[in-house]
Structures are given as C-alpha cells and as structure tokens.
Structure of ADP-dependent (S)-NAD(P)H-hydrate dehydratase:
Amino acid sequence: MRRGYTAADVRAAERPLLDRGLGETLMARAAYALAQVCLRELREHAGGAYGRRAVVLAGPGNNGGDARIAAGHLARAGVGVELVDALALDAADAPALGRRLADAELVVDGVFGTGARPGLPAALASAVAHWREARGQREPGRNTPAADVPAGHRRGPEGTARRRGPRPGTQRVIAVDIPSGVDGTDGTTRSDAADGLPEYIAADVTVTFAEEKAGLLLPPGRVAAGRVEVADIGVEIDTAPDVLSLEPADLAGVWPTPAQTAHKYSRGVLGLLAGSAEYPGAAILTATAALSTGVGMLRVLTAEPARTAVLQACPETVPGEGRVQAWALGPGAPEPERMQAIMHQIAADAAGSTAQDGSARPGSRVPPAVLDAAALDLLDGPLAFPAVLTPHAGELSRLLGRLGEPAAREEIEAAPVRYARRAAELTAAVVLLKGAVTLVAVPSGPVFAQSAGTPWLATAGSGDVLTGIIGAALAAGFLEGASHEDLPRMAELAAAAAEIHGLSAWHHHPDGGSPRRGRELRQGPQLGHEAGHRRPGPVRARDLAWAVRDTLSGLLGA
Ligand SMILES: NC(=O)C1=CN([C@@H]2O[C@H](COP(=O)(O)OP(=O)(O)OC[C@H]3O[C@@H](n4cnc5c(N)ncnc54)[C@H](OP(=O)(O)O)[C@@H]3O)[C@@H](O)[C@H]2O)[C@@H](O)CC1
Ligand SMILES: [K+]
C-alpha cells in the first residue's frame, strides 16, 4: 500500500527536528540520498557517471538547497555538473538552456518542493518547452527499438565517438521531493495556464523525503512523478495519510475469498438490473464480469429482450427476483421505475421497519449497492443506504448540479479529488470517479487513488465491466449486509476492483495466449516513462470481462 501525506503534515512532522536545529542535517541526508539515486540512474541508463553531463535546476527554497548539495556530490563523482538558478533565468536565455537540458544525460529538478504554488515561472516553462522539443526531435517514436537507433547515437564501450546529446531514451530526469509545478498535497498543477507552456517538469524518478506526498499519488502529479523512491531522512509522521493506493501485492489481503465451508448462497448473491432493448450488451458485460469475479450466484432482473440476451451469453445466470447480498444497478439504461423501486426498498429496509411495539429499528444492515450510469441520474440527495457510485467526470458534473453545487466537467477534471470528496459528502456514499487515475472517496477519511489502467481502457463497455467486479466484491464482502459504517471497507473493495479492472487490461491476451501470472502480475505495471516497454494493446470490453478471472487467479495465487 502506498500512503500519501499532505505537505502540511510532512512539515508538522519536521517541525520538532527543525526546532532542535537539525535542519541542515535533514537537508544533508536528503541531498545524499538524492545523489545516490542520480549516480545509480546514470550507471544504469548512461553507462556510468564519470564524464556524463548533468544540469541541476535549483529553486530559491530548501528544495533548491537539496539540489545544490547533491550537485556537489555529483561533481565529486566526476559528473560534469551545470548548476542553474532556475528563477534567475532570463526569457532570452530559455532556448539555449532548453538545448543544454536536452543534451544532458541527467537533469535534476530541484526548483520547487512542498512549499510551492503550482505552475512554473514563464521563463523556466519556456526553457522546458524548448527542451521537450529538442528531445522530441531526437526521439521520433518513443518505442524505437534499439536496433533502429542510428549508429551515431550508440555509445562505444568507453563512451567515445558519440553524437551530441544522449542516446534516445537514456536521459534521466530526477525530481527532488516532487515534480516542480505540481502541488504536493492535491497533485494538481496551475489551472489558469493559457499560454500553452508546460506547467510542470515530468520526471522519470522522484526521490521523495520521509514519506510520499499525497500529490505524488494523484493526477496529474502521479504521472509527472514517474517511479517514486522514498528516502528515509529520520522524520517520523504519526498523522493519518490523506491518500492511499492499493498495489497489486495488496489485493490478496483485501479481496474477499470463499470460506472452506461455503455454498453458493453463503458466497454472496448479486442482483443485477442492467441493460435494455437499446443496450442489451451492457447487461452482458456486467454479468460476465461479475461471473468472472466469482460471484456465488447472479440474479438478473432485467426485462426482455435483454434478459434473454444475458441468459444466452451467461448460462449460469438465474433470472428473476430472490434474496441478494448486493445490488448492481444502472448500466445500459434499465427501466428507471424498476431501479427506483429497488432503491426505495433498500432505503426502507435500511431505515429499519417499525417494530411491533411501534419503535423504530434504526440502522438495519442491508445489501449494499453499486450504482452506475442511468442509476446515477436518479440521485438528488444523500442516500439512506450504503452505496458505491461510479461516475465519470461528465456524470459527476450532472450529479453535482442536481445536488445544488454545479461544477463543469473541466473543473472536475482539473481538481478531481476535491469534487470526488464533495460528492461523497453530499451523497453519503462512496464515490468512485473514473479517470486515468481512478479516485475512490468516502464522506470522511483518506481517498484511494488507483492507476493500473491504460488509456486503452477508455472504451465503451469498460465501465459496465467495472460495475460487475464491484458488485461481485460487495456481494462476497457483505454477507450479513452493510450500513453506512461500512463505507470505508466498501471504498477499499471498490479501489481493489478498480485495480483488478486496470490490471486485466494490461494482462489480457485477446489472441488466446496465456495471461501473466503470479509474481509478475503482483508487481503490476509501471506508470509514465517507465511504462514505455510494456504497453497493452487495444482493449475490448468483452475480453476484459473474461480476463478478470485470470487476473484474480494470478493475484490470489490460484
Ligand atoms: N523542511 C525540512 O525539514 C526539509 C525540507 N526539505 C526540502 O525542502 C523542500 C521544501 O522547501 P521550502 O519550504 O523552502 O519550499 P520550496 O518548495 O523549496 O519552495 C519555496 C520557494 O519557492 C518560491 N516559489 C514557490 N512556488 C513558486 C512559483 N510557482 N513561482 C515562483 N516562486 C515560487 C517561494 O517563494 P514565495 O512563495 O516565498 O514567494 C519560496 O521562495 C522540500 O520539498 C524538500 O525538498 C529537505 O531538505 C528535507 C528537510
Ligand atoms: K522539485
């Protein structure tokens, strides 16, 4: 599990050490750890450290202080270091600095850290734009295989006979604590930027101090940070994290698995209301995903002709009503009246039917529900039963409008954590906001941020599959029903479902090849630049729904 802390909590944890006069000691430790990572990256990616070129961008605060001390360590190891005062940069010098940045084997970004306002000063942003352009010219395609690299780019055994600039793909960008331009706490960058210039410096590796900052787990900071390495500098944080991320290796400990003595009813029954005459496919995808997830039984309440379509595609499905341990409502525009009726019934059960002596029986445990797509359009206030809502930004925008706090889709995309949290408060539900980084918020408590996915997952039907996985997890995880007190556990299951959904896209083999298994699967995909050599291809929602079974088998060690 990755844990991200607010910049304020990290500062508060450092405060007693600073009061004891240990500021310089902390900075020395941070800089030493940073330099070690830089030297290792040079050895691994540029064939060595001695004689290689580094540009160290240093800002006005302590982040710049870390970078300046690390620059000294690098110089003593024989690296040719150019130290740049990043805020003293003149706009006229930006193109030349951009070229020098492109020519370096190593760039250290020590401009801003946890004390920063998001965004980059204009002259620096212009230099970064020139740098990107020069790198782009040298790297026509990010996936250029080594054999296609022109001979002039290849390094001889002694690093001789080189063309100007590092070989494509060998430059390493190391961020100090957090990529400059990104907010340490919410991961956002400047939202008012209209000049088209870069707003942050994207890194291959971020060396962060004490603990991960929440902004490293959240979009777009998460992608900007590349791989994150935490350096222990002797600062202990005893407050709760603000953001959590489940990693593939965590899933076996989180996911509900059947007891030895289980039978199909005690494994959890999921009631599904999905699909319509226009969209029967959504019901098939949600049903397939729930069955691939290993639900004990799936009851489908959908009307004809979607019902027959589901029964033909998934013969295990049981048609009609009956007892269920969880509900999945909404994919494929099923009848609104039917969804309303089911939600009213769960709400009435949750409120506690009046006992025979007339007293209320509050807080009854009821089957939790996952509400997707058309079901979201029926909500206009706090939910009286425990639920997971699964909007994308557009659906969340409509929902927030009905809840009296309108927000445009673009506003939500620029600050997704804030709006996911607010929607969770207003609906008293778990809100899973889909995106490149999927966020799972509860009315109060840490947010989960999951990013196993790939842009290929943004395809019709993908969300129906996620609903099926979440529904199956709720059915297995809440055999005795749930109340609002269970929202944190429901959020954990929804986050795990999002991770499994994303991993299934990375690991499914539509051509029938065997899926990745065991250890390789549990290590999970890498984000950002690291992902370059392991990309999934196009994803079909139908294949995804099937692949969930192999992903889970691999993760659970089956
Ligand atoms: N504390 C500790 O114990 C340890 C801390 N450590 C390190 O310190 C880092 C935090 O350092 P920090 O607090 O000095 O803040 P930092 O991010 O360097 O920047 C502040 C400066 O930047 C300026 N500025 C900001 N944004 C700007 C913008 N958009 N555009 C222009 N200017 C902007 C800002 O100006 P101002 O806001 O005052 O006008 C101020 O001058 C932390 O990330 C870690 O690396 C480690 O050494 C371990 C021990
Ligand atoms: K930085």
User: Anything to note?
Assistant: Residues 23-46 form the longest helix (24 residues). Residues 504 and 548 are 6 Å apart (CA to CA). The mean pLDDT is 89. The radius of gyration is 26 Å.
